[in-house]
Amino acid sequence: MANVSVYNMEGKEVGTMELNDAVFGVEVNEHLVHMAVVAQLANKRQGTQKAKTRSEVSGGGRKPWRQKGTGHARQGSTRAPQWTGGGVVFAPTPRDYTIRLNKKEKRAALKSALTSRVNENKFIVVDELKFDEIKTKNFKSVMSNLKVSKALVVLADNDKNTVLSARNLPDVKTSLVNTINVYDILKYNTVVATKAAVASIEEVYA
Questions:
Q1: Distance between CA atoms of 126 and 146, rounded to whole angstroms?
Q2: I want to staple 193 with a disulfide (CB 3.0 to 4.6 A). Which of 14, 69, 71, 197 is the partner?
Q3: DSSP 103-145
Q4: Rounded to an integer, what distance in angstroms lies between the CA atom of residue 181 and that of residue 62?
Q5: Gap between the Cα atoms of 202 and 19, Å rounded
Q6: What is the pLDDT at residue 96?
Q7: At what angle do helices 30-43 and 103-119 cross, to 10 degrees?
Q8: What distance in Å separates the CA atoms of residue 180 and residue 13, rounded to the nearest whole number?
């Protein structure tokens, strides 16, 4: 089992914690991680883009001029793509971009992402994150104490003061245990998790 240091909000080491190898010590499957990221980004797409083809643009039913003898190239419709006001050649139409992964693949990808963060020493455990008031400055000072800039902060419960204190920091995102995902874990340089959150992750995914 991997051992990681546990820090307090002042950035001082206050102990160590053993991580469960079933979650934080698996063999990293890069292919599954890639699939999970692609699926997540694809599933965000609305798929509502639409443009009209030449068959959908109104008008253009009559030939603009006769076939021969005018000196112009032959034309069958004023709604062909080369005309102003004509249709689009390969027009986008509404479609579903959804990519589905099964539960085992999702879990394996998440474990691989978490393991990679632990292996790279980019997984920091804090004993707790508690704030008496909603103040961005206080949260920023905690991040400075931990020497972290761009971070995904994982919480065990939805603590209002902590979430709202972090909300205005552009490089920090708070997430609950049940909402963490592969894309966010990889997007942010460091994962900062409370001891309670780590225990909860191990309970859910072990």
A1: 9
A2: 197
A3: HHHHHHHHHHHHHHHHHTT-EEEES----SS--HHHHHHHHHH
A4: 56
A5: 8
A6: 96
A7: 110
A8: 25
- Report yes or no: 148 and 124 within 8 Å, Cβ to Cβ: yes
Edge to edge, the sheet with strand 2-7 lists 13-19, 2-7, 123-126, 190-194, 151-155, 172-176
Q: What is the mean pLDDT of the chain?
A: 92
d(CA 7, CA 159): 19
Ramachandran quadrant class, 149 (left: phi over 0; alpha: psi -120 to 50; beta: rest):
alpha
User: What is the distance between the alpha carbons of residues 151 and 187, in angstroms, rounded to a whole number?
Assistant: 9
pTM of the model: 0.81
Closest by CA position to 180, among listed 135, 117, 94, 128: 117
**DSSP state string for 138-193:** HHHHHHHHTT-SSEEEEESS--HHHHHHHTT-TTEEEEEGGG--HHHHHHSSEEEE
- pLDDT digits 0-9 by tens, 59-68: 999 999 999 9
The single-letter code of the amino acid at 174 is T
**Sign of CA pseudo-dihedral 115, 117, 120, 124:** negative
Give the pLDDT confidence score for residue 115 in this predicted structure. Answer: 94
Is 80 exceeded by the pLDDT of residue 1?
no
Beta strands 151-155; 190-194: pairing state: parallel
Contacts of 95 (CB under 8 A, 6+ apart): 47
Q: What are phi and psi of 46, to 5 degrees?
A: -75, -35
Share of the chain above pLDDT 70, in %: 100
